Amino acid sequence: MNRKQFLEQTAIVTCGLACMPTLLSSKQKAEIILGHNNKQYRIDTKWGGLDFNRYPVKDCHEMVQDSKGRIILLTNEIKNNVIIYDKKGKLITTWGSEYPGAHGLTLFNENGEEVLFISDNNRHQVIKTTLDGKVLLTLNYPRETGEYNMAEDYVPTETAIAPNGDIYVTDGYGKDFIIQYNHKGEYIRHWGGRGEEAKHVKNAHGICYDNRDSSNPVLIVTSREQNAFKRFTLDGQYIDTISLPGAWVCRPVIKGDFLYAAVLQSHSRQGQQSGFVTILDKNNKVVSNIGGSEPVYSNNVPDEMYQTIKAFQYPHDVCIDDEENLYVAQWNSGHVYPYKLMPIVK
Amino acid sequence: MKSSILLYLLCISFSLFAQDTFRLAPPLLKYASVFFSNKAIVEIKFAQRGTVVHYNLNDQEPTELDPIYTKPLLIKNNFTRLTAKVFGNGFYASETIAATFIRDGKTIQSIVQTSPNILYPGSGVNTLKDNIGGSNELTNNTWMGYNCDTVTVSLNLKKKQVIDKVLLHFFQNESSWIFLPEEIIVFWFDNSTNSFQPFGDEKIFTDKENLGPQCINRIIEIKSSINTDKILIKIVVQKKIPSWHPAKGAHAWMFIDEIKVY
Fold this sequence. Notes:
The structure holds two protein chains of two kinds.
Chain A: H1 3-18, H2 21-24, E1 34-36, E2 39-44, E3 60-65, E4 71-75, E5 82-85, E6 91-95, E7 102-110, E8 113-120, E9 125-130, E10 135-139, E11 158-161, E12 167-170, E13 177-181, E14 187-192, E15 207-210, E16 218-223, E17 228-232, E18 238-243, E19 247-249, E20 253-255, E21 258-266, E22 276-280, E23 286-290, E24 297-298, E25 301-302, E26 315-320, E27 326-330, E28 339-343
Antiparallel strand pairs in A: 1-2, 2-28, 3-4, 4-5, 5-6, 7-8, 8-9, 9-10, 11-12, 12-13, 13-14, 15-16, 16-17, 17-18, 19-21, 20-21, 21-22, 22-23, 24-25, 26-27, 27-28
Chain B: H1 2-16, E1 28-30, E2 35-36, E3 40-45, E4 51-56, E5 73-75, E6 80-88, E7 97-103, E8 108-113, E9 144-146, E10 150-172, E11 183-190, E12 195-203, E13 214-236, E14 254-261
Parallel strand pairs in B: 2-7
Antiparallel strand pairs in B: 1-3, 3-5, 4-6, 6-7, 8-10, 9-14, 10-13, 10-14, 11-12, 11-13
């Protein structure tokens, strides 16, 4: 080996080792597995990364998967309110420039055609669109309820759609009412709102249609400042409360037997990028906290939950794909694109 | 050459799948109050397998040589500062969390202060002398929050007695616009002249950002002890948030939960 060959080989090996700092560590680094019990994951923080100059994001608020397997992200960045990825994180397309307060995103299969419902905080409206952005219906502030004097009082955050097409809107940043419409957008009733009774909610940030018990489907509504979900019948009768001490839960997302939710922050560490993701089983018991404390129950209520690993800053939504991978969108977290979490198969 | 290229490719392939390294979050300190009469009991919580919490009571940055937390801590000494930090293989160690535990002072008979903002009213007239405080939660009614220019606090001791220190306990969270005051001025009532006399004062400068939310106590001392039963305190709230802050120029908030006299 001459000097040139020696230098070449040394440079190659040095370069390679520089790319692999973990091998240089004197202490064997443990593999990072997030979560508990049968809901544990590896994380890929690079999954949704794009060229920020071309496809910027502000807050990444919510995500859904369509029947083609595509992952649809909603952001309040009006250069591209909707960013559509494949499951590998490759950009497929973008659209939308008219949703400055884009916050809630719900997908619904309407007689074989998938549609989106966008809740816009700034426009004080809910907008129904096709998957490529054509507007089908706009719901203005619910004057019919008698609870609102002006559009600004109403700041919708989320929708849930029942199989019959009924639309449920949560006014999570307004007056915390849940407003029910039929599929045409005609007002039916409203409930919730603020107060001291169990039926009231505080920061009704999210809602979902829970059909895990197919004979008795219910609505689950977030009461984020109370660190809880509240269950209601489809006509708005209060059923019970799922207490989640310490967890500022965002919207509930049902997939199979499980309920998933991003936790914006830990109650004991507010304003300190202390979020995680929680997973509840079919009995609505916490079985895993991704980046959070191990779930422990005392007297049928979970002990206070909190962030333990700073994997996330302020998670705002979680989407579960057809292969049980999770995608986490984050609010106010330095313009980060969504992360992907892959389940550990045991 | 071939083997080197193979090694290079192996290294690159490893690096492509290299996982992120995350920082552990700080542990939770659980206590009824940082103020105590005889003793304070502190629990440290961190439910994450494969990690340990190291702590000390000497106000030093915890290291892996410090004791491992296993059971609730009993604190009896005034101004004990507990610091704690989590360590775990595969993670960066957490930031340090700290709390200072403060023993009761002279009995304050009554206290009257400027009305706080309606959003942060505290628990009522005794908020600043109820021995309850030191929480990082602003909405639990232990804190009085102000965004006015000056806060005046007038307090009467149970009897005339010798004092040489006044402690004020504040919350600081600059990212939420909560700053320490610009100035604290303390007076004592002199019966011989029937007037308030200067006790001491402190100007506080916020020319650089502080890390994260924290409780901070400020102690105003007088060089020679005095004998009195009345104290008057003027707290000057920061009227303009400093230029390094995104909200520069806006009026700051000031949060206080307890006053002690020694």
